[in-house]
Amino acid sequence: MSSILSKVLPAAEDPVLSVHTFQSKDLHPSYLLCCFFGPILPFYERVIFACRDDPCPVKLNLSVGAYRTEEGKPLVLEVVRRAEQQLANDSHALEENRVVTIQCLSGTGSLRVGAEFLAKHHQQSVIYVPNPTWGNHPSIFTLAGLSVQYFRYYDPQTRGLDFEGMLEDLGAAPSGAIVVLQACAHNPTGIDPTLEQWEQIRQIVRSKGLLPFFDNAYQGFASGSLDSDAQSVRMFVADGGECLIAQSFAKNMGLYGERIGALTIDRFSRTLIGAGEEREGVYYFTGVKVARVHGASKAKPSSSSTLWHRRLGHPSYKALSTLPIFKNFKLDFTDSSQCDICFKAKQTRKVFPDSFNKATIPFALIHCDVWGPYRTPSSCGAVYFLTIVDDYSRAVWTYLMLEKSEVASLLRSFCAMSDRQFGHRVKTIRTDNGTEFLCLSKYFREQGIVHQTSCTYTPQQNGRVERKHRHILNVARACLFQSRLPVEFWGESILAAAHIINRTPTHVLDGKTPYEVLHGNPPMYDQLRVFGCLCYAHTRPRDRDKFGARSRRCLFVGYPFGKKAWRMYDLDTNEFFISRDVVFFEDKFPGIDDATYVTPPTMQTDLPIDDWLLSPATQTEPTHVPSPVTTTPVLTTSDTLQSPAVLFPDSSTPTPSTDNNTTPAPSPTLSPVTADTVSPESSLSPPSSPSPTPITEHSQSAPSPGLPELLGRGQRAKKSSILLKNFVTHSATTNPPHASPAHDQSSPLSVSGKTPYPIADYASTSVFNAKHQAFLDTITTDYVPKNFQEAVRDPRFNGAMKTEITALEDNHTWDVTTLPPGKKAIGCGWIYTNKYNADGTVERPKARLVARGNRQKAGLDYKDTFAPVAKMNTVRFLLKLSAAHRWEIHQMDVHNAFLHGDLEEEIYMQLPPGFKTDDPTKVCQLRKSLYGLKQAPRCWFAKLSKALLSFGFIQSYEDYSLFSFVQGDVCLHILVYVDDFIIAGNNNSTIERFKTYLHKCFKMKDLGNLKYFLGLEIARGPEGIFVSQRKYALDIVAECGLLGAKPSPVPTELNHKLALSNGRPLRDPSQYRRLVGRLIYLTFTRPELSYIVHILSQFMQKPQEDHWLAALRVVRYLKGTTGQGIMLTSDRNLRLTAYSDSDWSACPITRRSLSAYIVLLGDSVVSWKTKKQRTVSRSSAEAEYRSMADTTCELKWLKRLLLHFGIHHPRPMRLFCDSQSAIHIAKNPVFHERTKHVENDCHTVRDAVQSKLITTEHINTKNQPADLLTKALPTPAFQFLLSKLGIRDMSLPT
After folding, report:
1. Element (H, E) at 770
2. Alpha carbon of 233 to those of 100, 126, 184, 238, 1253: distances in Å?
3. 1225-1255: b or e for each residue (b if 16 or more CB lie within 10 Å)?
4. pLDDT at site 606
5. What share of the chain is helix, strand, coil (3-state, %, to 5)?
6. How would you write 568-604 as a 3-class SS string?
7. C-alpha angle 631/636/639, rounded to 5°?
8. Which is higher by pLDDT, 1217 or 1179?
9. Which one of 364, 843, 868, 1160 is most buried, counting C-beta atoms within 10 A?
10. In the listed set 1014, 1036, 1065, which residue is the last one of a domain according to the structure?
11. Containing structural domain, residue 832
12. What's the CATH number where 461 sits?
């Protein structure tokens, strides 16, 4: 035997169960298999060894605790069988065959087996355990392959259960996660939740879809009762959901040495995953078979009654017994209550008994519920209302709410009111399971309030407030139908209904009113009036003149809180107000027509419904309602910005009049382009469009309550898509031209509760006057087709394409010919836009035929391509000088500018989209330059320069696109950007003469005063010229789908590591490249974006997800600052000032530094730049010095540009730097060893200092505005430095 045992290898030690193995010399061979039961205690060691050493051949080891029958099977005592049967009879879960139990090695072994089972069969591998828990629990679950997370359980401050933290952590757990729950004081802290807390835990576990795993070990020890300690587990078993229970019997049954335990699984799905058979006392898994659970006997064979019950579709046995075919049969009904199919198919809910319970004192029990959201906001913008019912007096309180989150503050105020006003504290609150009530659990506990909740999907248990909702709505609907008011007045009708109900007798109170029961005295009825009736309110003396009207024609809409007066609605001014001097006509109901009532009234602040309760809100002055939207033409009154002292319209601003005869412009009609057949002998001719068919517009307004609804085809009211209810759909076109598109609480398109951050809150234009608001609205919301398929259906752009083709034909741009062999024809396409006049009207829709020049080959299709275009620095420079010298600024546009250039190369182009020919070999041989060709800009600019020089202009060497005409005191400056001109001058007659000259040379279009140039929006006022890219920024935000996102206060995250990111690459880099490209263009008016755009531009080749998220953060920053731009002030200070800064070794890959500078002309920023240095700097001083050299070059160029405009700059230009070392190097004529390799830069800066061209000055880093361009800054520093640059945001949040 020893030779056999010597070959047995020691079993691996389980680090969790601490299972030990023993050498053969320590144990008798017959006990070799018993080593799996863990460490043997000294008492049992003596018993085992005494049994082994006893020489008697007939002996029985009682220490093992295992007894078998003569057949070798485990012996089950009769008392155990009876107990098992009694348990089966008392448990529905056992009756339903939902429970499977297996014996394990105590509670720890049960946890291990359950963990292995869940790791293999459960879809979620995350398990949550309490903190604290037993030390071996994390190892148990980790070794099984589960990921261990913790939820809060113990609060050291209170030395009790951290119930709020526990609910919060469980609520944040992913669906399907496993949760270990310790009952019966089994947690190391010995603390158990109460039964009420267990019920809340059960609700959140079931609602989140979590899987509970109970760990029980001291059943009977916690409360002294086995039954009481099992209540928490029975809650989870009773609701029919799945759960696992690890039970230890070692402690409460005195079997600690035997390590007795069990794992019980409550199978809700009852899906069989495996079975086994017993052989020699051990169960072996044999596959999926029918298993006996809990030793229950096998099912009896189906009787004849059961068989016929199944044949006839499971009727009731009472109905079955009455059938004639069974008159000779004796039916067996013993199985009638056990038919599982009948329960599944026909089980109904239990009848709700009538409740006769009633509180004995006021506020001992209150019922609460929230109604909403309603699809149409009320006059105050609310979409919910909270109802509170006192169980004793049946008094009702209603509060209008914009958000469900207001419930918490309202309930706190109500509890305080009941105590202070009535001397009764709220004792019990009954609600449903809404999170707006559950979040107050801590408050209820602190105040000693019992919070009762209804069962899930059982609103009948909160029936009193539910029935009160029906009562309130019945009265409110009657008020609305009687008064013929629009549905937007539902809030007023709800408040009035609650006021009336509290003063209406009810049989529940034996003919008394809720008011009388609560107060002890009957209410007064002399203040009651008919809701919605006509009335006349006396005009306040301060609001009238000697010959003005003495009254206001109004509607009665309710009873204000805390006032002996009535709430009125002025029919003429759309204003809510309160008055006591009112004359009523209670038999007249003028109502409000839906056609005239467009904008709902603004928010009311006094929301409570009765004058005998405290108000949670304060009274405010009456609020005015915007006038209804009308279709007036675009305004042409005063210009752009208001006075700098007051940036809001005043009484002197002309108010646009509304023309009732004005009709809206017809909607675009469908007119597809169809081309005629093109013959080789004839040139292309534009197609003719069929006659347009007008599109009928249906009314969007819903009928008023009480009025008959129009039926029939085409009469149904158009409603917004329910799929878009959570999206921002607010557009400036919904406001009149003189109104600001700022967010209005009353607007149905900006309902609070739908989107927390609507774009209308951040896109206000209220600081501008009416004319410029109309202009901004037009360019923001005007429609532009994205492709040929859209444009061909729009008659405006269809006509624009015809005009373009006609111009091309008249100019003999091409000849239709056959493509020669060996040649390739490049493609072409259409680009669409709108040209605007200075008053905001669309001058013309513009369609441009563009050749695909990216297919041209250098040296074959083109040679020279360079053509100068205006630098944005020059544009800002010219606008600043125009503001300072009060120059007139105009804009002109060239029709088909590129057609004026002749081509020398042989180029073939495919036929334009929309035209066809029967011969597929026909192409266009270009004779004139066309948009998109590589050589087109150069050809056009050469012809334009010749015309300008002939007029007497001088071309600037600093910017070749700038031309100046100076004659005596007359100066005229032209800035050219391809086919768009900026004309600035001090003499109107000279400007008009020059325009006439241009009209003779080219086909020009005069666009009036400069308003919109290359995406730049220009507004001029007494303070100066404001330049922004508001529409461009809004387009970026809309394209990224972030109109409803939360704005970011800064564009860049602090301490970002974008250069070292190792995230996943983007699947479609084109989206990232397009977004960054658009952000680059946005930096023309947004210097604060230079740094982050510089960083993002380095990852265009292979962008990653981190880079994309960083770009989206910039877009979120743009959402909050859409109207931000630069203010070019009109002050005459034209001194150049620069700020230079660097970030040493900013690039973690190349270790090259970052240079940046900002240049101001007077107080206006005109130039800025962020750029990575060409070489690695050996010190921060060297990096700063290189940045100063770049700034000096920019200052020299700007001074020469200033001289071209005829302005001398005799004083030295100031250069600020925050590095003392760099400043000393610039002033020191001796080159040190450490600066010899930057000698050229030293000469650049040092020579400028010695010649007094510049002066270097030190600035504190905290005040260095160039810091914005070199690094990410926290919000306070970012906002402070931004304000130093004169950056303005003309659309601050409302």
Report:
1. helix 770-781
2. 15, 22, 10, 9, 87
3. bbeeeeeeeebeebeebbebbbebbeeebbe
4. 37
5. 35, 20, 45
6. EEECCCCEEEEECCEEEECCCCCCCCCCCCCCCCCCC
7. 130
8. 1217
9. 1160
10. 1014
11. 788-1014
12. 3.30.420.10
Please say if 1003 is a catalytic residue: no
Same domain, 908 and 992: yes
Q: Which residue type, as a one-letter code, is found at position 990?
A: T
**Alpha-helix residue ranges (DSSP H) falling in 449-591:** 463-483, 490-501, 514-519
Query: Are 851 and 937 in the same domain?
Result: yes
Structure tokens at 264: 């019980």
10 and 124 together in one domain:
no
Q: Is 516 within the bounds of a domain? A: yes
List pLDDT tens digits, range 846-902: 888 888 766 555 545 444 555 567 788 889 989 999 999 889 999 888 776 555 566
Is residue 419 domain-shared with residue 309, that is, in the same domain?
no
Is the pTM above the cut of 0.85?
A: no
**Domain assignment of residue 45, yes or no:** yes
Q: What are the CB-based long-range contacts (under 8 Å, 24+) for 1220-1227? A: 1220/1258, 1221/1179, 1221/1180, 1221/1181, 1221/1184, 1222/1181, 1222/1184, 1222/1185, 1222/1188, 1223/1256, 1223/1257, 1223/1258, 1225/1181, 1225/1185, 1226/1185, 1226/1188, 1226/1256, 1227/1256
Residues 630-642, mean pLDDT to the nearest whole number: 30
Strand locations in 913-987 (E): 922-926, 954-955, 962-967, 970-977, 980-985
Distance CA 436, CA 1272 (A): 39
Task: Say if residue 676's pLDDT is above 50.
Answer: no
Do the Cβ atoms of 581 and 537 come closer than 8 Å?
yes
* DSSP secondary structure letters along 384-422: EEEEEEETTT--EEEEEESSGGGHHHHHHHHHHHHHHHH
- For this structure, is 830 an active site residue? no
- Rounded CA-CA distance 1271/1265 in Å is 11
Catalytic, 251? Answer: yes
Closest CA to 941 of 864, 1052, 883: 864
> Is 963 inside any structural domain?
yes
* Domain co-membership, 383 together with 506: yes
In terms of domains, do 328 and 372 share one?
no
Q: Please report which helix (H) or strand (E) contains residue 1126, including its range.
A: strand 1124-1129
Q: Look at the chain and report how many structural domains it folds into.
A: 7
What is the distance between the alpha carbons of residues 756 and 100, in angstroms, rounded to a whole number?
Answer: 49
What is the reported pLDDT for 934? Answer: 65
Per-residue pLDDT of 1224-1260, as tens digits, reads 888 776 655 556 666 666 678 888 888 888 999 999 9
Facing residues of 111 across strands? none
With a cut of 90, say whether residue 1137 has pLDDT above it. Answer: yes
Q: One of 208, 251, 427, 563 is an active-site residue; which one? A: 251
Q: Are 603 and 379 a contacting pair, CB within 8 Å?
A: yes
**Cα(251)–Cα(698) distance, rounded to whole angstroms?**
79
Q: What is the DSSP letter of 268?
A: S
Structural domain contains residue 675: no
Neighbour count for residue 1008 (Cβ, 10 Å): 13
Please write the tens of the pLDDT for every residue from 890-921.
Answer: 988 877 655 556 677 788 888 888 777 777 78
According to DSSP, the residues that pair with 505 across neighbouring strands are: none
Q: At what angle do helices 1180-1204 and 1239-1250 cross, to 10 degrees?
A: 50
* Catalytic option among 134, 308, 830, 1108: 134
From 987, 1014, 1041, the end of a domain falls on 1014
**Residues 247 and 326 placed together within one structural domain of the fold:** no
Q: Which residue has the higher pLDDT, 246 or 1235?
A: 246
Whether residue 943 is found in the same domain as residue 975:
yes
pLDDT tens per residue, range 1033-1069: 888 998 888 888 888 999 998 888 888 888 888 888 8
**Residues 580 and 565: beta-carbon distance below 8 Å:** yes
Q: Count other Cβ atoms within 10 Å, centred on residue 576.
A: 25
User: Which residue, chain included where needed, has tokens 């200092």?
Assistant: 1249
Identify the pLDDT of residue 593. 62
The winner for highest mean pLDDT among 772-776, 842-846, 1165-1169 is 1165-1169
Task: Name 654's Cβ contacts closer than 8 Å, sequence gap at least 6.
Answer: 637, 638, 770
